[in-house]
Design brief:
This protein has 287 residues and is mainly β. It is 14% helix and 61% strand. Strand 3 and strand 4 form a beta hairpin.
């Protein structure tokens, strides 16, 4: 995962740099509490709403478990089912900061991608307990939504730098269905609520330019459930108008969920693997 390693190294280097270069510029005069609050106001907006488009290289695998045969084999759904390689997704995020210094924040984020296909099989296919012979016409859908809900605390900030840590939930509804004439429909509706922790940094690198980075991760394993998440983002933003800014960046996300219990309360038995890396373009309203 070389791309993810590069993201982590950039994040660490920029955090270290913030403690040196940015911190040294503010030693000329002592600051009052009011001065600190005003500087924090320049670095952190009270309310921020952003919406944009995501263009990605996308890959995924899915296992639908069989009570008779076990977990079965992971299939590449793009190849096996002919799903359109959708490189476009919508993203949105809302952040509200509270308290006098705005060090506390609540954030909610959304990512959604819908894919579908019709394909006549050139090779036989096994999904769960159902076999599809060569020549079968399949209609399939694969809809993915990622919702983030988190609390963020800025443990260091001045007028040009804000460093924070977060704790929250990563909610991933997945809908996967396959239909063929003369066969029972294969439908999987799965919602995975997973906890996550993260680090964030915002740097003012010019009069109107900001460099923003986040790193979120999770690894959870118990009994018949295992889940892991790594999400890395780096963005460059320009505050174009008084309350409106535009930006672009790169986001890499890896999610793996495995459930080995056929009677799972999450209504899923098998494995889901999701991975994408791509370019994010967005606009942001703030005050």
């Amino acid at each position: 995962m070389p791309k993810n390693i590069i993201f982590v190294l950039l994040f660490v280097l920029l955090v270290i740099n913030s403690q040196t270069s940015f911190g040294q510029g503010d030693k000329a005069e002592p600051q009052t509490e009011l001065d600190s609050m005003n500087q924090a106001n320049e670095a952190c907006d009270r309310l921020s709403v952003s919406f944009g488009a995501f263009f990605s290289g996308y890959n995924s695998g899915i296992t639908i478990g069989s009570k008779n045969l076990g977990l079965g084999l992971v299939i590449d759904i793009e190849d096996a089912l002919g799903l359109d390689v959708s490189n476009f997704a919508t993203r949105g995020k809302v952040i509200y900061r509270f308290g006098k210094t705005k060090k506390h924040a609540l954030a909610a984020g959304y990512f959604g991608i819908n894919r579908n296909a019709n394909k006549v099989l050139q090779d036989s296919l096994q999904l769960g307990d159902t076999s599809y012979p060569i020549g079968t016409e399949l209609t399939s859908k694969y809809n993915l939504t990622i919702i983030r809900l988190k609390y963020d605390y800025s443990f260091y900030q001045d007028k040009r730098v804000s460093l924070g840590a977060s704790l929250g939930m990563f909610i991933m509804p997945v809908n996967f269905s396959v239909r063929a004439q003369g066969k029972e429909d294969q439908v999987t509706n799965f919602v995975a609520p997973l906890p996550l922790i993260g680090l964030r940094s915002d740097f003012q690198i010019g009069k109107k330019f900001y460099l923003r980075q986040t790193a979120e991760l999770l690894y959870l394993s118990f009994t018949d459930f295992k889940g892991s998440l790594l999400d890395l983002t780096i963005m460059l933003e320009h505050k174009t108008f008084k309350n409106v800014g535009f930006g672009f960046g790169i986001n890499s996300n890896r999610v793996n969920v495995t459930i080995k219990d056929p009677e799972s309360k999450l209504n899923f038995f098998g494995d889901i693997r999701i991975g994408y890396t791509g370019l994010l373009l967005y606009g942001r309203y703030f005050f």
